[in-house]
Design a protein that fits this description.
Elements lengths: L9 E5 L9 H8 L3 E5 L2 E5 L2 H8 L7 E4 L2 H11 L4 H12 L2 E4 L2 H11 L3 E2 L6 H11 L7 E6 L5 H8 L4 E11 L3 H12 L4 E4 L2 H13 L8 E5 L1 H9 L4 E5 L4 H9 L2
Parallel strand pairs: 1-2, 1-9, 4-5, 4-7, 5-6, 7-8, 9-10, 10-11
Antiparallel strand pairs: 3-8
């Protein structure tokens, strides 16, 4: 990205509910010579904990488990923490012997560190890519795969696996909603820093909640470049009328920085 002034290009990252100064994406962009701010576009809360606990105590009913976001891993970890130490060890040992599938390196790392599982598919950056991994590993007409997910998770994995006669049992373990401080945070940054050169979206739900707000406050969308993390987010941006300037094909800080530098 070419500098539009003597100052380094300015970006805003719409990312989950974690906007602390230690975010690895922000750090990587600063190292690459950009200025950037994190705006927490979403907030999350966990749900159906008791139902999840009842499921986790019956690993023999499943052939494995699917995680498509860090939140789903955290939800399972929170549920497991309700058992005593001996029960936790027993259950996690049982689940470790089953197949674990994940989307993305961040989710893979959490499944390892928080649950002691051995994930497959961490290189996949989106649901349809993981579906292909699963169908290449799991035989049809076997025990179902457990799929703890969020309320806004798309149906790509259940639909694709169902077509391959691989059963999936979904349970909503967290709810996603717009961050209550989104408008105030964004307006403060725009007032303090001025118009950004680029904006980054991490998820379709982030697009859903942040883009209408930009239009409400008359932000000059045609004067800014919009970058997506993954093709699913890119598709959501296009559907809402945005021109996608670049897509980071893998959800890593390095891929994001490279996508922006190539503009």
């Amino acid at each position: 990205m070419a500098k539009q002034s003597s100052a380094a290009p300015l970006g805003i990252i719409f990312k989950g509910d974690n906007a602390d100064g230690n975010d690895k994406y922000k750090e990587e962009l600063i190292r690459a010579g950009f200025r950037c701010h994190l705006v927490p576009v979403l907030s999350f809360y966990y749900c159906n904990a008791e139902m999840l606990m009842n499921i986790l105590i019956t690993p023999e009913k499943y052939s494995g488990i699917i995680f498509t976001s860090p939140r789903s891993v955290y939800a399972v970890r929170k549920a497991v923490e309700n058992f005593n130490a001996d029960q936790r060890y027993y259950l996690l040992e049982k689940w470790e012997k089953l197949l674990t599938f994940v989307v993305g390196e961040a989710t893979q790392a959490l499944a390892k560190t928080l649950l002691g599982l051995v994930p497959i598919g961490g290189h996949s950056g989106k649901a349809d890519a993981l579906s292909s991994v699963i169908t290449s590993v799991v035989a049809p007409n076997k025990k179902p795969l457990l799929f703890p997910c969020g309320n806004l998770t798309n149906e790509t994995i259940p639909k694709t696996l169902s077509e391959a006669t691989i059963a999936v049992e979904s349970i909503v373990v967290y709810q996603t909603q717009p961050n209550c401080c989104l408008r105030e945070t964004l307006q403060y940054i725009l007032f303090k820093e001025g118009k950004p050169d680029f904006m980054v979206y991490f998820s379709p739900s982030g697009v859903k909640y942040a883009l209408p707000l930009l239009r409400e406050i008359d932000f000059p969308i045609d004067k800014c470049k919009f970058i997506a993390i993954g093709t699913s987010t890119g598709d959501a941006m296009v559907k809402m009328g945005l021109e996608v300037a670049a897509i980071a094909m893998h959800p890593t800080p390095e891929y994001l920085a490279q996508a922006i530098m190539n503009l």
